[in-house]
Structure formats: structure tokens, C-alpha cells
Amino acid sequence: MDFFDIKTIREDFPILSRKIYGKPLVYLDNAATSQKPLPVIRKMEEVYTTINANIHRGVHYLSQQATEAHEAARKTVQEFIHARSSQEVIFTRGTTEAINLVASSFCRKYCKPGDEILISAMEHHSNIVPWQLQQEALGLTLKVISVDEKGEIMLESLERLISPKTKLISIAHVSNVLGTINPIEKIIALAHQQGIPVLIDAAQSIQHLPVDVQALDCDFLVFSGHKVYGPTGTGVLYGKEALLESLPPYQGGGEMIASVSFERTVFNDLPFKFEAGTPDYVGSTALAEALSYVNRIGQENISSYEHALLRYASEKLSEIEGLRVYGTAAQKSSVISFLVKNIHHYDMGMLLDRLGIAVRTGHHCAQPLMHCLGIEGTVRASFAFYNTKEEIDVLVAGINQVMKMF
């Protein structure tokens, strides 16, 4: 692919030049977290060394500068996901907190005993457990949309499960295990025909695919900064303004108030109503730098390049005798989960690590999906735009070398 200079891009990621056990690092654990480019690292250093001060409350110069950087970051996120207003962008600590926020506030406002929340069989634990907590607290029912043998959502299952008691559908845009790109446009359209809001977990799509919340017409969308080349401990909740306005706060404290007395509290306007306490203004500013970095390369370019990597890896891995891939959907993102013969996924991962190859092993925080697949876990290789075909060749050679040991 000639969309960009891969050598120049890799130079922006110093960690990629490391050696592990004397071998060049081959980092294929991008679905867990991405590496950070120098502009993001430098932006964090710049904020701490030039304008570090608590935001919004201060009248002094540093506070005003930090406030402007934080709110400019919110505007950058708005533009990146094509939200209508920056008031619809809530900063969180990540996807997990964002889903917990919606689960808590939405269910308190709109749900009663017997009401139903729909999720899919391929969800990450962070899109299962928060709803189970509400199920226990409020007497809700959690229903699960089926997934077929390819790892694709069964829309007929969704249609069958929707009922007058369905209050919300919460679903992954891309599966962190299977790589499946779900037909969220169809899911949202089906839901909206019945007046049901939809939350999209974009933790595994925001770094790979262009996301336009207005075009999708989703009601909520969440993602983590560390998956999209930004710092850890940062994340975003997008919500339609009217819906966010209707919800009670998730947490109480400073910043989320307009006024406080011992008799009553008046809550702040959006987005601050949902941002109690001192926000991670350094993280938000660095997240904005990460999104700007992605924009400079081009989301369409990234998507095309990574698809070529996925296609190449799929072809090469299919040549390995006894290797089974889990997740063969027609529409996939750059994730391949596999097992090789009777070699335990943990053993494969540990031995690949000794060759300098970083992959993920285990249930990938998706134990219910593993149960559906009839396995305990997989080896997962996940790709980013700084990976190369040569690294995939190293992975294939590594797998073959491990197989010889067994």
C-alpha cells in the first residue's frame, strides 16, 4: 500500500525499536492497547511543563490556558466523531466508565422492574457486567442476541428479542475477539422503529474505521483513548444532547454543580453535569493530539492499509496445518483469534513472547463468548497501521517454530 511511508510512521513510535529477549519487538496486541506516537507523549510533557493548573475554576493565566486546551480537546473529539455539539462529548476514564455511566443514569431514569436490556453474545465484560449490576439493583432482565458460527450477529434473533419492555440495546461496533464489524446501521434502524435507544461500544472501531455519530444516528457511543493512540485513563461518552439532558448525574462533587447548599444542589449544564471532580485535562489534551495524528494520516488510509494487513495475515495463517481461526465474518476488522492443534493458547503466547512477538492469550474479557464457542480462550493477533507484512511473516515463522516444540 502506498498511502503513507510506513518507515516514517514507525519512527514516531519509539517503543517499536525495542528488543525483547534479544529479538526485535513485534507488537501485535493492539486490541488491548495501542502504542503512543511521539506527538502524544510530547503533548503530555508540554502541558505538565508549561500550563499545568486546575481548570475552569481559576482566574489566573495557567488555569485559563489549561481550560482552553481541555475544551479545545472536547471540540477535537466532537469533530472526530462528527457530533452535532461539543456539549454532547463527556470525558470519562475509558469505555468501561462510560458504559457504567449510561447504565447507572439511564436505568435510574427510564427503567423499572421487568424492563429489558439487549446485548449480544460477543460483548466484552465491560458491556455485560454494568447491565448485570442494574439487573440486580432494579430487577431488569438482560437478553442476549445470538451470534452464528461465523461470528456474525443474527438479526433475526434481535428482531425476535425486541419487545415493548426493551428499554435499550447496547452492542459492540467491532468484536475484540472475532474482529466482526457489526451491522450497527441496521441494528439502530431496527431499534429506532420501536423507539428504542442504542449504545455503541466503539472501543475496537474508533482506531480502525471512520465513525460518524450523526450518520449512524446512535443515541450513545463510547470509546477509550488508549485504544486510539492516546493516553490511558481517558475516554469519551457521546450522547444525544436531549437524552443526556434528561439523565441524572452519575457522580456528585465539584464541577458538576451550578450551586450547592445544605438544602439542595442545582446541577451544572452539559457536559459538566457528568464530569464530577478535577478532570484529566492533561489526558484530554493528549487524546486530542492522538486524534489529530490519526487525521493527519487519514482514517480511510488507515482502514485500507490495515485491511490489507488482515487479508495478508489471514492468507498466511491459513497455510498453517491445524490452525483454526475463530471469527470469519464477511466484514472484519484487524483482529485474528486462533488456536493451533492441541497447543494451549497460554503456551503458544508464552513461547511467541520469547521470540519477541507480543500477542494476547486467554478469554479476552469475553468469557460468555468463549463458552458459546466451546473453548477456554484463544491466541489473538491484532494489527495497527504501524505493523507490517514482514512482522506477520515473523508471527507465522514463530508459530511454526512453536509447533515443532510440540
Quick overview:
The chain has helices at 6-11, 38-50, 61-81, 95-110, 129-138, 155-161, 184-193, 213-216, 241-246, 281-297, 299-318, 345-354, 367-373, 389-405; strands at 19-20, 23-24, 26-27, 89-92, 116-120, 141-145, 166-172, 198-201, 220-224, 235-239, 257-260, 265-267, 323-326, 335-340, 357-358, 360-362, 378-382. With 406 residues, it is α/β, with parallel strands linked by helices.
The count of helical stretches stands at 14
Apparent shape: globular
- Terminal CA distance: 37 Å
Our Rg estimate from Cα atoms comes to 22 Å
Kindly provide the name of the CATH class of the largest domain. Alpha Beta
Q: From the helix content, strand content and strand pairing, which structural class follows?
A: alpha/beta
Tell me the name of the CATH homologous superfamily of the largest domain: Type I PLP-dependent aspartate aminotransferase-like (Major domain)
* Residue runs with pLDDT of under 50 for 5 or more positions: none
According to CATH, the fold-level topology of the largest domain is: Aspartate Aminotransferase, domain 2
What about the largest sheet?
Answer: 7 strands, mixed
Number of domains: 2
Q: Count all strands and give the number.
A: 17
- Summed over residues and divided by their number, the pLDDT gives a mean of 95
CATH architecture of the largest domain: 3-Layer(aba) Sandwich
Share of helical residues: 40-55%
Strand arrangement within the widest β-sheet reads 4-10-9-8-7-5-6
Strand content: 15-25%
